[in-house]
Amino acid sequence: MCKSADLLDNVAIVQCASDRFWIAGWTRQATRLHSCLHVGDEVISVDGFPIESLDQLRRILHGAFDRVALRLRRLPYGKAFSVQRLDGQSLGLQTVGHKAEICHVQQDGLAAAHGLAYRTTGAVDDANFCTWTITEVNGRPLSLWPEPKEVALRLNAHGQEISLVLQPTDLVKGIRCQLKRIKDYKQFVVG
User: Which sequence ranges are marked TM in the entry (predicted)?
Assistant: First the structure.
């Protein structure tokens, strides 16, 4: 159960990828939602009503009492994995510039050894393949617009265990594009 006001004011839900509805971010005021939401969670229904449009979603939330039941499909296209490494050992991932999009997976690297392929079936267009984009590192969301060196710093953090959440790049681009259409979208940028 979530407070309807929190969802209205503090969570960005966008429509993309075959007209489905996705969590795109949340404000700093919604810190308690951080533990239960992930960028790329699919919103299935609110209070038992299947979501057909963003206007319908807003009407349900405006008409709701204090709390609503939010049904999510947790990261339906995501891949989460945890890797044990020696201090400073590379994961065998290369990203595009300072972005979180993976442009190469070294075949003899740790990520490949844990089953990560360079490409995945697209979420928007499942007839084509696309690359992966990192959306979380060690349980912390990564900004959809990371600062220069942010991705490298998070991936190279000291410690023996690192966990990643990866999602198809076409889905991440769709979410990012729709998020930018929201007035004051920067307040919902997590990371």
Answer: none
Distances in Å between the Cα of 12 and the Cα atoms of 27, 32, 75 are 8, 15, 16
Phi-psi region of 159 (alpha: psi -120 to 50; beta: other; left: phi over 0): left
**DSSP label at residue 133:** E
DSSP letter at 62 equals H
Residue 181 lies in a domain: no
d(CA 169, CA 176): 10
Q: Which of 75, 105, 139 is the last residue of a domain?
A: 75
- Measured from the Cβ of residue 70, the count of other Cβ atoms closer than 10 Å reads 22
- 123: alpha, beta or left? (left if phi > 0; alpha if psi -120 to 50): alpha
Q: Domain check: are 84 and 71 in the same one?
A: no
Q: Does the reported pTM lie above 0.85?
A: yes
The dihedral built from the CA positions of residue 129, 133, 134 and 135, taken in this order, carries a sign that is: negative
User: What pLDDT digit, counting tens, does each position of 78-95 carry?
Assistant: 999 899 988 767 899 999
CB 30 within 8 A of CB 190: no
Residue 11 bridge partners (DSSP): 26
**Structure token digits, residue 168:** 């198809």
Number of structural domains (the chain) is 2
- State both tokens at 140: 């912390």
